[in-house]
Amino acid sequence: MSDFLRAEFLSPLPPPPARGKSWREKLFGDARATAITLGLLVAAGLLLPPAVRYLFIDAVWTAPDGALCRAPGAGACWAYVAAKLPFFIYGAYPQPWRVNTAFLLALVLIVWLLRPRAKYKNYALGGFFIGLPVVGFILLHGAPALGLPVVGTNLWGGALVSLIMALAGMTAALPGGVALALGRRSKLPALRWLCVGTIEFVRGAPLIAVLFMANVLLPLFLPPDWAPDRLLRPLFGIALFASAYMAEVVRGGLAAVPLGQSEAAAALGFSRWQGLRLIVLPQALGAVVPGIVNNFVALFKDTTLVAIVGLFDFLHAIETARLDPAWAGPQIALTGYIFAAAFYLGFCLAMSSYARALEGRLAEARR
Amino acid sequence: MVLVVKKIVLALGLALFLAGVGARADTLDQVRARGALVCGVNIGLAGFGLPDDRGSWRGFDIDYCRAVAAAIFGDAQKVRFTPLSGKDRFTALQSGEIDILSRNTTWTQSREAGQGLLFVGINYFDGQAFLARKARNLKSVRDLKGASICVQQGTTTELNLADYFRKTGISAETVVFTGGDEALKAYESGRCDAYTTDGSALYAQRLKLSAPDDHEVLAETLSKEPFGPVVRQGDDRWFNLVKWTHFALLDAEELGVTSANVESLRESQNPEIRRLLGADNDFGAGLGLSKDWVARIVKAVGNYGEIFSRNLGEGSPLKIPRGLNAQWRDGGLHYAPPVR
């Protein structure tokens, strides 16, 4: 009666191999794998040598100005990057040691926080969310009482601005996002509507529009002494943006935690907040690590948008420096963009590889 | 209903805006109280305003800011530079965020009559020009008949070019590119016989070619692009101060007063130089400045010729000829009223 029902059993499939395939079997196991491997090898063979020649062999490593880099056949002009490096990192900041100290402090705290089995993490947490902003502000902005002259934000630039934007955005995004996500699930209608409105409004407007509004409209409507600093305006915009996007990621995590978890916490005598803090949130955040890191990576690259409001972030510092008539030449723009790509790639790779390790650890813990 | 709300919001905004403007009538007093001049500059234009290796600003427009600071404080370092994009440069000035806009801004009627701005004068006469290979040996733009010309899309340069061809009846092929760098690349690869944009930018673009010396900028220009510093309307004293800083730079060059000889020329017997440097009379008081205001300016940044040469002319990699920007005695257009 039915042609689509099988009449007899299929022969059983062979059992999975006891050990994984060797590299040779993987790469050249059958005709298809061999063809793909060889094709990719040929492509690499065609693309890599010119790239290596351009980046290293023909590159100009030291030069007093752009004359050597302008010569026909010259490759990447690393001498230009070396000459402009202080500008790329600090902008016009007059005392680099203050920036270096702040960078170092941030680095120590981040490594401390991210090491799996580091001790006294509560101190690191406090240091990162309270100590770092305060000390960083005193170091970078200055405190005449402590002998640190004030450095106006118009002198800040380069990687300094990019990293401040990214760090401030990330530092604000996690607590802000959790708060907005919890508010969105709240039973109090006014609070819920406020959070939903904020999230939807911020996600609905392009970041460029927010930056322009903050930069152009705020000073028009406020007396000149009230208008926030030119660095703070985009900082607020970015923090708000990152929080709204983070809120939706966190909401996804909260939805993934079964209701039974909070009920069980209540049954064990946890208060609402304890249950949230100790039972629900750790599971929710753990479930959405890829989403959080994805947001951080996007945020880090979005910081380049502040260039349109006249801030010299890392990318814009490179874009500006390539106009310098002393260095201008056919290879300068390309060299600058390669350097910028390496910078952003390095940071984003570091973030995503840490996230992969974290996911692995969380998966192990769940098993 | 929506219209009414809109009107109320607009009125409220305008009232706040006017209140803000009214609160800052005297710019000079504010600059003195602040201890620094705030100057709006380009976010990066070779020769006009660009941070150097250490991030400190250099350029033709920058030196104009430093000249004003030197006139007020006797110290050319007392300037804060606010880099502004083309979009927010005028709002920054209107809102009082900056004291002067010194940012290669073209003087046009609508900007002055419609936006509450005042141009203090023309400090650089620019115009749309052409870059071509020296080997072609072009004498004028008319020799480009039948040639192909690279131009950036959606700019006034593209429109000027079309206007020019229509006016003169010359036929030439226009090749349009989305970005300036792409257009330059196409020109270098031989896709076009000439590349056109503003003259001041062409000299900087030329340096991006692999053999800059094989290319020349034609002297003839298509359009008028007069650049000058801009201030807000409603503060005549400040307007005068910036305007006369500009004239003082030109007068100093005309009289041969340079940063090197300004100290020794204080004893000069030439009455014009004595007046300029405030040896006898006090011409600074009317501007709210000291007697030796011109000497302060020239000592700090040099005269107009020195500023031009250092940033744009022979003393810089750009090597822009003075052309229209020469003094009136040398066949240029710069003609400053005297200090007396």
UniProtKB/TrEMBL annotation, chain A:
TM ranges are 33-56, 68-91, 97-114, 123-143, 155-183, 204-222, 234-257, 278-300, 332-357
Q: Gene3D superfamilies per the record? A: MetI-like
Location of the protein in the cell? Cell inner membrane; Cell membrane
Task: List the InterPro entries hit by this protein, alphabetically.
Answer: AA_ABC_transptr_permease_3TM, ArtM/GltK/GlnP/TcyL/YhdX-like, MetI-like, MetI-like_sf
The record's GO molecular-function terms, alphabetically, read: transmembrane transporter activity
Biological process terms from the Gene Ontology for this record are: amino acid transport
User: What topology does it adopt in the membrane?
Assistant: Multi-pass membrane protein
Listed A to Z, the keywords are: Cell membrane, Membrane, Transmembrane, Transmembrane helix, Transport
Task: List the record's Gene Ontology CC terms alphabetically.
Answer: ATP-binding cassette (ABC) transporter complex
Q: Which Pfam families match?
A: BPD_transp_1
The record's PANTHER family line, in alphabetical order, gives: INNER MEMBRANE AMINO-ACID ABC TRANSPORTER PERMEASE PROTEIN YHDY (PTHR30614:SF41), MEMBRANE COMPONENT OF AMINO ACID ABC TRANSPORTER (PTHR30614)
Q: Which family does it belong to?
A: Belongs to the binding-protein-dependent transport system permease family. HisMQ subfamily.
Give the protein name, as stated in the record: Amino acid ABC transporter permease
Source organism: Rhodoblastus sphagnicola
TrEMBL record, chain B:
Residues covered by the Solute-binding protein family 3/N-terminal domain: 36-265
Q: Which InterPro entries match?
A: Bact_solute-bind_prot3, Solute-binding_3/MltF_N
Organism encoding this protein:
Rhodoblastus sphagnicola
Q: Which Gene3D superfamilies match?
A: Periplasmic binding protein-like II
- Family in the record: Belongs to the bacterial solute-binding protein 3 family.
Asked if Transport is a keyword of the record, the answer is yes
User: What name does UniProt use for this protein?
Assistant: Amino acid ABC transporter substrate-binding protein
Question: What is any one GO biological process for this UniProt entry?
Answer: amino acid transport
Q: Is this entry keyworded Signal?
A: yes
The taxonomy runs: Bacteria, Pseudomonadati, Pseudomonadota, Alphaproteobacteria, Hyphomicrobiales
Supply the Pfam families for this chain: SBP_bac_3
> Which of UniProt's keywords are assigned here?
Signal, Transport
CDD domains, per the entry:
PBP2_BztA
